Amino acid sequence: MPFYHKLGTFPQKRHTQFEKLEGGFYYEQLFGTEGFSGNSALLYHVHRPTQVKEILKSYSVEPKIAIGKNIKSLLLKGFDLKPEDDFLDSRKALLVNKDCTIGLAAPQKSLRDYFYKNADADEMIFIHKGKGKLRTMMGNIPFEYGDYLIIPRGVIYQIDFDTAVNRLLYVESFAPIYTPKRYKNESGQHLEHAPFCERDFILPTELETHDEKGDFLIKIKKEGMIHEVVYATHPFDVVGWDGYNYPYGFSIHNFEPITGRVHQPPPVHQTFETSAFVICSFVPRMYDYHPKSVPAPYNHSNVDSDEVLYYVDGDFMSRNNIEQGHITLHPKGIPHGPAPGAMERSIGHKETHELAVMVDTFRTLMVTEEAMGIDDGEYYKSWVE
User: The whole model's pTM is what?
Assistant: First the structure.
């Protein structure tokens, strides 16, 4: 995160004694990234956060790869993915590489029977359908349609859904997820030309502090495995914290589009970045206003990246026969562009109401068996007239 935030109570000086009113001490925990050089926060617990009582079992959740070296453009029908009750069981990895996992989930019930922690990856969860509350050890964040939830690795969380129909796009990143550096000054403040600012972030509030002992199941994801670990105290026992490393939300509806006289390239839609990929938001906007402008994107080659588009809502003007929940993959190695007729159809139009999320990876994506189960099989031929 680009700015400092705090919740609850904590001592004025870090790494000093923090006494409880009833006697004893609170326990400080450094929650940091990239060793001791990245963003961090200091958390203060009622109980020591190190009390592993038992390890029950471990099992693999590594995705099964169907295509390891891919050249084919794909269209995946995301809403064909069958809903499941359990939050983790519903998560299906579709496209993966050494840097990230891109997948979909359709959980029908809240995550309340256990806690979850991703020990390897930051998570981006995009809420396509559904409403509820992300509950974490660092506070709670309400969410609804169109929200991005950014959950740094190591955050323990649960999710309460107010709805039974929930559709989520998620990305697991093995490098930290930040807002783009070019949007910020040396102090980390977002600049005037940035398409969003600090006011747009949904910060954690409503810090839950549970002083409870017992058996608390945490499912920890690490190196493609789920480890079921029992803690002796409630994971949400933080009385206060401050710092720069914490979960937050951002609504795609608060992304302010950058437009121009002629068609603007995809970087103007960038919302988040890592060292290995970027995440972009395509939102309703005015089209280009040069008298001879062509609103549809020009044909382009993915020389250095694979392009993944998740279609959320509206009429995506550069494609034909695209529906909500569809995912397209345009791999590096072959050019792609508007579907036949889309360029001509776009001329003269003044605005678009499309809504989509794009992930561009610098390393080639492998295709999983789950993805092939919802592939239409014909998309790569869609540019042939």
Answer: 0.96
CATH classification code of 255-381: 2.60.120.10
CATH class of the 28-64+83-252 domain in this structure: mainly beta
Give me the residue spans of the domains in the chain.
28-64+83-252, 255-381
pLDDT in tens, 22-53: 999 999 999 998 888 889 999 999 999 999 99
For 61-102, write each residue's pLDDT tens digit: 999 999 999 999 999 999 999 999 999 999 999 999 999 999
Whether the domain at 28-64+83-252 and the domain at 255-381 fall into the same CATH topology: yes
> Mean pLDDT of all residues in the chain?
95
- Residue by residue, what is the 3-state secondary structure of the chain? CCCCEEEECCCCCCCCCCECCCCCECEEEEEECCCCCCCEEEEEECCCCCCEEEEEEEEECCCCEEECCCCCCEEEEHHHCCCECCHHHHCEEEEECCCEEEEEECECCCEEEEEEEECCCEEEEEEEECCEEEEECCEEEEECCCEEEEECCCCEEEEEECCCCCEEEEEEECCCCECCHHHECCCCCECCCCCCCHHHEECCECCCCCCCEEEEEEEEEECCEEEEEEEEECCCCEEEEEECCCCEEEEHHHCCCCCCCCCCCHHHHEEEECCCEEEEEECCEECCCCCCCCCCCCCEECCCCEEEEEEEECCCCCCCCCCCCEEEEECCCCEECCCCCHHHHHCCCCEECCEEEEEEECCCCEEEHHHHCCECCCHHHCCCC
pLDDT in tens, 157-186: 999 999 999 999 999 999 999 999 999 999
pLDDT surpasses 90 at 257: yes
